[in-house]
Design brief:
The complex is a heterodimer of chains A (550) and B (172).
Chain A: H1 3-18, E1 22-27, H2 30-33, H3 37-50, E2 57-62, E3 74-76, E4 81-83, H4 88-101, H5 115-118, H6 136-141, H7 146-154, H8 157-167, H9 179-188, E5 195-200, H10 209-216, H11 218-232, E6 236-241, H12 246-261, E7 277-282, H13 292-299, E8 323-327, H14 328-340, H15 342-346, E9 356-363, E10 369-374, H16 379-386, E11 396-401, E12 407-410, H17 420-425, E13 434-439, H18 444-458, H19 464-481, H20 487-503, H21 507-511, H22 514-522, H23 524-530
Parallel strand pairs in A: 1-2, 5-6, 5-8, 6-7, 9-13
Antiparallel strand pairs in A: 1-3, 3-4, 9-10, 11-12, 11-13
Helix pairs in contact in A: 3-4, 7-11, 7-14, 8-9, 8-11, 10-11, 10-12, 11-14, 18-19, 18-22, 19-20, 22-23
Chain B: H1 16-26, H2 34-45, H3 50-60, H4 64-73, E1 85-90, H5 93-97, H6 100-111, E2 124-129, E3 141-143, E4 146-148, H7 153-165
Parallel strand pairs in B: 1-2
Antiparallel strand pairs in B: 1-3, 3-4
Helix pairs in contact in B: 1-2, 2-3, 3-4, 6-7
The chains are: A alpha/beta (550), B alpha+beta (172).
Chain lengths: 550, 172
């Protein structure tokens, strides 16, 4: 395919879509699928057919529309109306009243002027809710693969790297390493064969950003990877995706096939000398495989155990070759940066943390779902304006970011801007973007114990501090939460946490004590209350978070 | 060498091995495709027993220790047969905060086995999951292949009760 053919295809698709008077999109991502989106689609299609409106109405299943707690969601693209909690009957009503008579179905209407929508800035999720996730033509009509065409035909690889560097984009997997810098290292690394790897092993419990991007807009990730391949000089890419995400796997498979058919992946892309193929690798459920060296071992078909760095994967990665590893959301940012320019991207967010961040908002909060906000937005805005506050009039206690590697941010620090540095000052991390809100019913010692149990289970067992340390920390937390602990146990706990943090081999162990340390720092009285507590003492919120897993 | 597709029956008499052979051939007998092949094997047979692991090791020309090591390392692979129905309870943070542990206690009490186990009549397996990624609808469980959100201990037990009333009907 040539650039002209790509533009022709886009124009043809736009013309085809304009033939329809109405375009109705419904969320086909896992969140809505779990509450009956398939039945809604059927009902919509049936209603359109029985009323002979097939020439007027086009139906499209799109990516996540954000308000996951109120699904299934349906959107009328023309006037931007959004409907929530749609079922078969409401679907019919939408066709009969809204489409046929122009009268909105009031009961299911979502107020799109609500801060939940108004405070968001969509870059990564710009297509989610408008384009059909399973049609490459739709993605191309929305400007897809233009960035790849521009890179391959108009830019030198070094220029692409420079553009990404200037945008200030930082890795969205959690650590925030500058993406342009990483690309430059891989580009300069010696080696005949280089690889590009997309880390889609989203293991943090409570995080579903990457899954939503893969389900809603898989081509965006593929395009970003292909641009990375061109910039770094790689000809082979791998997407390492969790086996727990069957829908994302299906969509990726389909997307790769479609892109290959159009010659957007494969040999001589846009009639250049650039060849790039992408293969899928399915994970098998190991949290440690989110760590890049462990992920590499897993792609090689081995036990996913990390190894010491350096050498970093950018020098010695897959099968010893230089390997560029980025997270799903990082790759999803690449196409807009190339298309609209680094200056545009750098304008969003703060000078040190540019662009937007997708958060998965969950827990004790009114609006749960997927949101995208500019970096540096105060946590308060996310939780109170976008999230809509706590349900049932309880009070906020903490927000947890970064999953088992992150920490709990107390309510009095909610004015903190959400960027990499600010979150680090309170002992948490940006992480991949899970944001879980806890209210007064959550007991923080129990929360720490919950995360430690996760780490005990997920520790790969290679290095002693992590393998033994996490078990000991969990034991101490168990003892304290049962009221059998002493003040010495708290001191021991702190000492042990520091030791595990300093001496573990990989990110899993190094960050495993974070939830304990941050709860100790901000909610110490909950620990001290339990130490030497009288028999039968019931701590705050223990009623609904009492027993443990497995 | 695994037999070719032309042969009508697999030598073992179990034609499911033919499907497995096809998966091994598709990956060109490459050792680094071990995880993919184990995924295929578990998909075909439901679980990985020792004979199956030996078969995969031979097919990919890998030491059995390596195959066993990989199969036991990853949570997704199971070396024991599963029940007719599976109840996968999400134990992710969002579900935890919204009270998944109460559901866990209720379901364990109802079935008489703990999570990670299968009822003695091989009907129901209780499986804990790290996070199924439907946090917006927490607490969540996956019953066979249907995701059920906003569960309470009562509704969870009720759904399991439906399986027990109509055995075999809603099997995946």
């Amino acid at each position: 395919m040539t650039v002209e053919e790509l533009r022709e295809l886009a124009d043809r698709e736009i013309a085809r879509q304009q033939q329809y008077r109405h375009r109705i999109t419904y969320c086909s991502a896992a969140g809505c699928a779990s509450c009956g989106a398939a039945a809604v689609h059927e009902a919509l299609a049936r209603a359109v057919k029985s009323r002979n409106m097939e020439n007027q109405v086009e139906l499209a299943g799109t990516g996540c529309m954000g308000l996951c707690g109120e699904g299934p969601l349906v959107r009328i693209v023309g006037d931007g109306t959004l409907y929530q909690r749609v079922d078969a009957a409401v679907a019919e009503k939408i066709i009969d009243e809204h489409i046929a008579q122009g009268r909105k179905v009031e009961e299911n209407l979502v107020d799109t002027s609500d801060p939940f929508f108004a405070s968001q800035v969509k870059v990564v999720l710009e297509n989610c809710g408008t384009t059909d996730s399973e049609k490459i033509e739709d993605y191309i009509a929305a400007g897809g693969y233009e960035a790849l065409a521009k890179s391959v035909t108009e830019m030198q690889p070094a220029e692409v790297v420079e553009e990404v560097r200037r945008s200030g984009l930082r890795g969205r997997g959690g650590a925030g390493y500058p993406t342009g810098l990483k690309w430059g290292i891989v580009r300069k690394a010696q080696g005949e064969q280089k690889y590009v790897v997309c880390n889609a092993d989203e293991g943090d419990p409570g995080a579903f950003m990457d899954r939503s991007v893969l389900e809603g807009d898989p081509h965006r990730v593929l395009e970003g990877m292909a641009i990375a391949g061109y910039a770094a000089g790689a000809s082979q890419g791998f997407v390492y995706v969790r086996a727990e995400y069957p829908l994302a796997i299906d969509r990726l498979r389909l997307a790769i096939k479609q892109a290959e058919r159009l010659g957007l992946l494969g040999n001589r892309i846009f009639d250049s000398h650039f060849n790039f193929r992408i293969d899928l690798r399915i994970g098998a459920g190991a949290f440690v495989c989110g760590e890049e060296t462990a992920l590499i071992r897993s792609i090689e078909g081995k036990r996913g155990r990390p190894r010491p760095r350096p050498p970093y994967p950018s020098e010695k990665g897959l099968w010893g070759a230089p390997t560029l590893i980025n997270n799903v959301e990082t790759f999803a940012n690449i196409a807009p940066i190339i298309r609209k320019g680094s200056a545009w991207f750098a304008n969003i967010g703060t000078p040190k943390s540019t662009g937007t961040k997708v958060f998965a908002l969950a827990g004790k909060i009114r609006n749960t779902g997927l949101i995208e906000v500019p970096m540096g937005i105060p946590l308060r805005t996310i939780i109170f304006d976008i999230g809509g506050g706590t349900p049932e009039g309880t009070t906020f206690k903490a927000a947890q970011t970064g999953g088992p590697s992150g920490g709990c941010i107390p309510a009095d620090s909610f004015d903190l801007p959400a960027d990499y540095e600010s979150l680090a000052t309170v002992g948490s991390i940006m992480g991949s973007g899970g944001l879980i809100v806890m209210d007064s019913t959550s007991n923080m010692v129990d929360v720490a114990k919950y995360f430690m149990e996760f780490c005990v289970d997920e520790s790969c067992g290679k290095c002693v501090p992590c393998r033994v340390g996490t078990v000991q920390i969990h034991g101490l937390l168990e003892k304290i939460s049962q009221g059998r602990g002493t003040t010495d146990d708290i001191a021991l706990l702190e000492e042990l946490c520091e030791m595990v943090k300093e001496t573990s081999l990989c990110g899993l162990g190094q960050s495993a004590p974070n939830p304990v340390l941050s709860t100790l720092r901000f909610f110490r009285q909950e620990y001290t209350e339990l130490v030497g507590a009288p028999e039968g003492y019931v701590p705050a919120g223990a009623a609904d978070t009492s027993s443990s897993t497995q | 060498m695994p037999p070719t597709d032309k042969q009508k029956n697999h030598l073992s008499g179990d034609n499911r091995f033919k499907l497995l052979d096809r998966a091994i051939t598709k990956h060109q007998f490459r050792g680094d495709a071990l995880i993919e092949v184990l995924h295929a094997a578990q998909g075909i047979f439901g679980f990985l027993d020792n004979d199956l692991l030996i078969y995969v090791a031979r097919g990919l020309k890998l030491p059995l220790s390596r195959v066993y090591g990989v199969a036991t390392f990853y949570h997704f692979f199971t070396l024991k047969p599963k029940g007719k129905h599976t109840f996968v309870l999400c134990t992710g943070t969002a579900c935890y905060v919204k009270g998944a542990s109460a559901i866990q206690t209720a379901v364990e009490h109802h079935c008489g086995v703990r999570f990670g186990e299968t009822t003695p009549d091989q009907e129901i397996s209780l499986v804990p999951a790290r996070c199924v990624g439907s946090c917006g609808r927490a607490p969540v469980a996956v019953l066979d292949n249907d995701v059920a959100g906003k569960l309470t201990p009562e509704t969870a037990v009720m759904k399991i009760g439906e399986w027990q009333k109509a055995p075999g009907e809603a099997a995946a």
